[in-house]
Amino acid sequence: MKWISFKKEMSGCNAYLTVFLALSLTIILSLCLTLIEGVRKNGARFMSEYAMDVGMNSILAEYHRELLKQYDVFFVDTSYGSNLPSLDKTAERLRFYMDGNLSCEDSALNVVTDLYGLYVQDILIGSPAVATDDKGSVFRKQAIEYMYDKYGFSILKDIEAWEKAVVEYELDGRNLSSERENVEGQINAIDGSEIQVSEEEWIAIEVDNPADQVNVQRNKEILLLAMRDTDNLSDSCFDKTKSASARKLNQGQGIKEKQNSGEFLQELLLFDEYLLEKCSYYGQESEKSHMKYQIEYILAGKDNDLDNLKSIAARLIMIREAANAAYLFSNEGKRAQAALLAAGVAAVALVPELQTLLEYSILFAWAFAESVYDVRSLFDGGKIPLLKTDDSWHTGIDSLFDSSESNVDKNETGLSYTDYLRVFLKLERVEKKTMRLLDMAELDIRKTAGNENFRIDGCIDGMTIEAVLRAVSGYSFIMQRDCCYE
């Protein structure tokens, strides 16, 4: 009876344990399933993050190879070789990479072990930083960063001092021609007029101005005046109306952060050095360049090489003439020579009051003759100081009577043709320089295989990406990234 009673007690206890274990297992199982589902959800989120980051890096890895090769900048070409740039194409490329990284198919075993069932539902790309935004500031930012990483600010030597001298002496803005024409006009008004030498005798005044022979040269073709050999000059041209600086461009949001104002001036000088490094110019022509005188185009903006070179030659003549005139008018010895010659001509013409006008005319002509020598020397590879001294002056006053071309020596001191281009670049607006650089970049990239339809305003170096991913379990994840080259 005791055994039966004990058995009944144990039987009742087992029933309690069964109920307890059933209830406990339900709770434990629910907890385990909740943890497993949480792990699954977090794993899916991690996979989404992973796919997004790898896809974003893959997009940036598709930078334009020719832009990097020729200009050392990183940009994604949203046309991908077609004739129409579009952010939709970039979104499709991102979707392709993300789908590939979300796929769990084992190609070796040909099995699928997909625990998450993730797929890309939607991709939105916005806020692109287009190369041409803000007059090319996006492209210029990368160019300056490249130059800073390569050289720092040590490459900037005397450019600011040169520019200061140009501004101080008004070398690039002084209207010397109007001053000269005013003097010449007064002399011509007297030349041919009559004066009375006696009560009944009048004679015509004949002024044999020594400057006339030099002034005739001013009407000569500028390149024939500035160069000895014009046979091998480039005559390349392009349709400027279709260039980046002239057509309507794709637009983005530009650069988000502000420029560092403390280094802004030095950054602009670095950009000028970038132009001289990447662009061809007279004496440094490049076979790969469509336009051989690219720096001259950046400064002059003409649609052909010859006109751009003419503009620079005329500007060189002008700046050298202003500098040489400043030297002559401040040099007592040279002014004494001009005054002596003017006095003789005025005496022969019987008009002593012409002496001062003739002196000025002679000095202007002398400055021009020296300027022709200077510019020929620059185009021949020589150097010319920005401001002359007695030691660096070459032409004598007898050059006014000798129209033959004088020999040009290659000076080793002063500014080279490249240095004068540096000065001109420093004086030019940075937005204009940047957009004209992009004109040249487009032309050069289009010469390479597969880039016939290249457009610089289809290139971006940054964007914001928003992707929506869903799992078969019903979860959805929204991924947002700022995607850019840093």
Distance between the first and last residues' Cα = 89 Å
> What share of residues is helical?
40-55%
Overall pLDDT score: 85
What are the secondary-structure elements, in order, as H or E? HHEHEEEHHHEEHHHHHHHHHEEE
Radius of gyration: 39 Å
Tell me the strand order in the biggest sheet: 4-8-9
Main sheet properties: 3 strands, antiparallel
Total number of β-strand segments?
9
Stretches where pLDDT is under 50 for at least 5 consecutive residues are 258-263
What kind of oligomer do you see?
A: single chain
Shape: rod-shaped
Q: What share of the residues does DSSP label as strand, in percent?
A: 5-15%
- Structural class given helices, strands, pairing? mainly alpha
Tally of helical runs: 15
What brief labels describe this structure?
single chain, 486 residues, mainly alpha, three-stranded antiparallel beta sheet, 9 strands, rod-shaped
Protein architecture, described:
The protein has 486 residues and is mainly α. 52% of the residues lie in helices and 9% in strands. It has 15 helices and nine strands. It has a three-stranded antiparallel β-sheet with strand order 4-8-9, covered by helices on one side. A two-stranded antiparallel ribbon has the order 1-7. A two-stranded antiparallel sheet has the order 2-3. Strand 5 and strand 6 (202-204) form a beta hairpin. It is rod-shaped. The termini are far apart. The model is unreliable at 258-263 (pLDDT under 50).
Give a brief outline of the structure.
With 486 residues, the protein is mainly alpha-helical. 52% of the residues lie in helices and 9% in strands.
